[in-house]
Design brief:
Strand content: 5-15%
Number of helices: 20
Radius of gyration: 27 Å
Number of strands: 17
Structural class: alpha/beta
Distance between the termini: 38 Å
Helix content: 25-40%
Largest sheet: 7 strands, mixed
Oligomer: single chain
């Protein structure tokens, strides 16, 4: 049967077996003549960017250059361990040395054996930021300890989990080309002091660097220049890109009155931010969709996972898998250490006061339901009021509606203006002696609006109400300090911050959690059980009934390690650079309307385009390998506030690039003008 199945394979999928060099394999190797043996994955070609060289008068013409390909990998290859195969062949007499057991990933043959060459451009984002793609010599200088794979023999000798890898190979970033962190020109910057990343940062008001003879303004000196597609007509005549700030100057902006000045230490990583190195840490970004490199712009729905997170979860199942807390054997101790270590990492990530303030749940939705059913049932009564905003995700609406229906309480909603910002004066009017809870998003998942949670939480406390902040869309974009926010609850989902799915967090103040009853009953949350009564554990175990998602909690800890190494402030600046770049480019497409233009935004671009349904646009982009989200984004009220039922939403993460934005914009231009290049 096995022979028949193999012989039925197309001839194009079989040549790998014939090309395996016998001399390169040890005697009796299971890889000999294996049609499924691992082969090097084809290097994904660079996404063809639209970044044009900018002169003083007109955009420079595009120049096609050969595909740079991926930077060389100097790591020592690790031979795959030989599969354990009985001495006698099975499956139609196939010799054991010919076909080993089919191992997932390592022994899988690629779906696309050949890469498709695509043109690149001469001006790239790396040039705009003053850093080049690392050369062969640069990679040779990297200590092998930073990039070497973990050998199976090393895992066998040591019970310790692998240390989180330093993300990629970090290059040099010229921070002087990056303006203060603000949305377009009107926004109040989130960071009020110059960044402390490597590189000279002239003081505010410093004179512009004089241009040498023959120099001209180009995209390499202005990373925020709007992309000009030379194949499309320009709106209102020739459009000349403009710099948002003087070249090579990062201004120091004094916060507006009423806003507390942020500390000067931004907590930047000691490593420069090299997006190409970051991308190499995410294996799925080498995937091809419909024959094209994957462009993942659906980070608001879920983020992709770095190799260090994948490896950490795998290591747990290989070396630590056990239930936690209630056994005397070695694996239980390892699993408990890993699980509780993840809790401590989460505490530090949120700057919570104690580890017992961190409760593990399945995600932000379950977290809000826990608060509604445990704290809400005890504290919300008839005629009490719960205040939310128009910006909320359904997960921060429906649980409160259910609680109000059960208790007779009232749900009140704070309005937003036409840009998507909460009207704080209207919000304040909703608060009163009957207000028991304010539950608000930190960042709108549909619009990207950054909500002023510090101000709103303080107002809630002034009226004697508790405050919950839904941070699902915030934790991967900005630093979160729950003690500075002073909220009573903060919730988020791990899969939105590069961790596995099925794990989430409730932060709760100690005095609040201590007075909350359990939500679910069962093992792990009890101290003593008789038929007459049960004594419960203190938090957090009180709210973690049964066997939790142990492995993915460990994965969350690994994701936090990774993000700490990159530096959340570095991520915020990079994403905001992309947001400015993408906003200016999208605004130039006729008939395209961005929904949500608040002064302070995270990396969310929600838009519609006249004459096209969102489903049509999403399908068209998918055929070009571009993943965006189309629909109501589980936030129907706020979309209806803007007169639409659905939008296309592109959401950004630390591994996205300006070239990917170029590809998105170019595809939308093609669709707008009825062009379908490369599609049948």
């Amino acid at each position: 049967m096995a022979n028949k199945m193999f012989n039925a394979l197309p001839a194009t999928l079989q040549p790998h077996a014939a090309t395996v060099a016998a001399s390169a394999l040890p005697p009796n190797s299971a890889l000999g003549g294996n049609p499924y043996a691992a082969v090097p994955s084809p290097t994904a070609p660079a996404v063809p960017g639209l970044w044009a060289g900018v002169t003083e008068l007109q955009p420079a013409a595009f120049v096609s250059v050969p595909d740079r390909g991926a930077a060389p990998d100097v790591r020592t290859p690790v031979p795959a361990p030989a599969a354990s195969v009985p001495a006698s062949g099975r499956g139609g007499g196939i010799a054991p040395q010919t076909v080993p057991a089919f191992a997932f990933f390592e022994d899988a043959r690629p779906l696309y054996p050949e890469s498709v060459a695509e043109p690149a451009v001469s001006h790239t984002p790396s040039q705009a930021f003053g850093s080049t793609i690392p050369s062969d010599e640069g990679f040779a200088a990297i200590p092998s300890s930073l990039i070497a794979d973990i050998q199976p023999s090393q895992l066998a000798k040591s019970p310790q989990p692998p240390a989180p890898a330093i993300p990629g190979a970090f290059g040099v970033v010229d921070s002087s080309a990056i303006p203060a962190f603000s949305f377009l020109e009107e926004a109040r910057p989130l960071f009020s002091t110059p960044p402390t990343v490597p590189g000279p940062v002239p003081a505010a008001g410093a004179a512009e660097k004089p241009m040498g003879a023959g120099e001209s303004v180009s995209s390499s000196s202005n990373p925020f220049a709007a992309p000009l597609d030379t194949n499309t007509p320009q709106l209102l005549g020739t459009v000349h890109p403009r710099s948002l700030y003087p070249v090579d100057v990062v201004p120091v902006v004094i916060p507006e009155a009423g806003h507390q000045e942020l500390p000067g230490d931004l907590g930047l990583s000691s490593y420069s931010f090299d997006v190409e190195a970051i991308r190499r840490d995410f294996p799925i970004l080498r995937e091809r969709v419909n024959g094209r490199p994957l462009i993942w712009l659906d980070n608001g729905a879920t983020t992709q996972k770095p190799q260090s997170v994948i490896d950490r979860v795998s290591y747990f199942y290989e070396h630590e898998n056990s239930n936690v807390h209630r056994a005397a054997h070695e694996l239980a101790a390892r699993a408990t250490d890993a699980y509780e270590s993840a809790r401590e990492k989460t505490r530090r990530f949120l700057n919570a006061g104690a580890t017992h303030e961190i409760v593990f749940v399945r995600g932000a939705t379950e977290a809000i339901n826990l608060v509604a059913q445990s704290w809400g049932r005890r504290n919300i009564q008839k005629d009490d009021e719960i205040v939310i905003t128009w910006l909320e995700h359904h997960a921060n609406i429906v649980p409160w509606q259910m609680l109000c229906a059960e208790t007779g309480a009232r749900l009140r909603v704070a309005q937003v203006d036409n840009s998507g910002q909460v009207l704080l004066d209207e919000y304040e009017k909703l608060l009163g002696p009957k207000t028991r809870l304010v539950s608000i998003a930190h960042v709108s998942n549909a619009l990207g609006t950054i909500v002023p949670v510090n101000v709103m939480v303080e107002a809630a406390h002034r009226h004697g109400a508790r405050a919950l902040v839904d941070g699902a869309q915030a934790v991967s974009h900005m630093r979160v300090d729950v003690q500075a926010i002073n909220c009573d609850f903060y919730v988020f989902s791990g899969h939105k911050v590069f961790a596995p799915t099925g794990i989430g967090v409730v932060y709760g103040k100690s005095e609040v959690l201590d007075n909350m009853p359990p939500w679910q009953g069962g093992g792990n949350m009890i101290q003593d059980v008789t038929f007459e009564k049960t004594l419960y554990q203190p938090p957090p175990q009180r709210f973690e009934a049964g066997t939790g998602n142990i492995a993915d909690a460990v994965g969350l800890g690994a994701a936090i390690d990774y993000l700490d190494r990159v530096g959340i402030a570095n991520v915020a600046r990079h994403e905001h650079t992309l947001l400015i770049y993408a906003t200016e480019a999208l605004q130039r497409i006729p008939g395209l309307h961005i929904i949500g233009t608040a002064k302070e935004k995270a990396g969310v671009l929600s838009f519609v385009m006249d004459g096209f349904r969102t489903e049509e646009i999403g399908d068209y982009l998918n055929r070009k390998g571009i993943a965006v989200r189309g629909g109501h984004h589980c936030a129907q009220p706020i979309l209806r506030r803007f007169g639409v039922e659905s939008t296309l939403r592109a959401t950004l993460a630390l591994y996205n690039t300006c070239e990917e934005i170029d590809a998105l914009v170019a595809s939308l231009w093609d669709l707008r003008q009825g062009r379908n290049p490369g599609l049948t």
